Amino acid sequence: MSTENRVSTPPDPEETFNDLLTYAELLTTPQLARLYIYTLQHGPVTIDTIKDELEMAHSTTYKYIGQLEEMKIVSRDEDETPTTVIATPLTLEIDGAHGEFRATPAVIDAIGRQLENDDIRVFVDRQGVAKLAAAVHYTRRIIEGELSQRTAANKLEVHPVEGMTVFAALQDVLEDATAYDPSLDLAE
Question: How many whole angstroms separate alpha carbon 117 and alpha carbon 110?
Answer without folding.
Answer: 9
